[in-house]
Amino acid sequence: MAARRISSLLSCSLSYSSLLPKGRFCGVGRVVSGYSTSAGIENPINPSIKVHCTQLLINGNFVDSASGKTFPTYDPRTGDVIAHVAEGDAEDIDRAVCAARKAFDEGPWPKMTAYERSKVLFRFSDLLDKHIEELATLETWDNGKPYEQSAKIELPMISRIIRYYAGWADKIHGLTIPADGPHLVQTIHEPIGVAGQIIPWNFPLLMFAWKVGPALACGCTIVLKSAEQTPLSALYAAKLLHEAGLPPGVLNVVSGFGPTAGAALASHMDVDKLAFTGSSETGKIVLELASKSNLKPVILELGGKSPFIVCKDADVDKAVELAHFALFFNQGQCCSAGSRTYVHEDVHDEFIEKAKARALKRSVGDPFKAGVEQGPQVNND
């Protein structure tokens, strides 16, 4: 079957929360055209909430970084500073790991019945539903994704994910295995210990739920490093988790940069397992740091180039809409974005014409405005 390849229609970043040095906004002021999907957003809608959670969360308390340093997190619509966030580094990671280790070895969380752990997670999911407006606003303000996407798609999905893992907490069973002779052979599943987690900027809360939910359901304790581009929603969600009854030290959140906080977490000798979502390039560094420290097991969810294939008997109008969604959803900032489109030569010209027309109709603007499909890119990297 002959086919023609359509090259990427949008240049989208696959470099997530990285251990490589990342540039910050330099003299951005209100210059939007350098990193936005539009020439600028006039009179941007002012979010109605105030940012309260900007410190590190260690051992159940919001605290300043050991160095006292902070870094700005920016509104990608304008380049204005939303808030200054505590900048954690290796010393803060060590403080957080020590708190998580003590909570695992001595605290109540891994010793609780699985049913009690599930109750905390169910309460957390209820709080997520109650605070959709605040969480969705923080997600859109920090990331640039449309508010309607944050509030109507992602937040309901996030609370559902937490409920899913809450339901698993008391259903994690071992096995009784047949054996030759008069022997009883059993397997027992136990929490691994302190889980290190590094999440990206493209879906901050969704990745928070994917990482935190299963680890807490199993009885692990956590040190989580948020992406330096989008630190706000993880801190707020962690606050709600403690309101739901999570004991101190079980979940610690350190905001910071990859070469400092991220590298320290990946190489820490008292972290028992590491989960990372981000670019393939950074994933290699994470794996190397883990192997050179205590050989901790590592789970990597990395970026890729995903093909979208249109056959000659396809409904072209439907294929255009699906291909458009696959490529442009979340400003094209998805590890599974349909960034390679292959179209059969018999329908190639028709597809190209209609795909171009659909792209030109895409509504780009202030993500807080109703009906906007695409806000600004997260930054200019």
Question: Could you describe the 3D structure shown?
Answer:
This protein has 381 residues and is of the alpha/beta class. The chain folds into 2 domains: 235 residues, Aldehyde Dehydrogenase, Chain A, domain 1 (3-Layer(aba) Sandwich); 56 residues, no CATH class. Helices cover 38% and strands 17% of the residues. The strands form 5 sheets. It has a 5-stranded parallel sheet with strand order 10-9-8-11-12, sandwiched between helices. It has a 3-stranded mixed sheet with strand order 1-14-13, with helices on one face. The protein has a two-stranded antiparallel sheet with strand order 2-3. Helix 8 links the parallel strand 11 and strand 12. Helix 1 packs parallel to helix 7, helix 2 packs across helix 6 and helix 3 runs antiparallel to helix 6. The radius of gyration is 22 Å and the shape is globular. The N terminus is likely disordered.
Shape: globular
Largest sheet: 5 strands, parallel
CATH architecture of the largest domain: 3-Layer(aba) Sandwich
Q: Label the structural class.
A: alpha/beta
Number of helices: 10
As a percent range, the share of helical residues equals 25-40%
Oligomer: single chain
Strand order of the largest sheet: 10-9-8-11-12
Tell me the domain tally. 2
Radius of gyration, CA atoms, in whole angstroms: 22 Å
CATH C-level name of the largest domain: Alpha Beta
CATH superfamily of the largest domain: Aldehyde Dehydrogenase, Chain A, domain 1
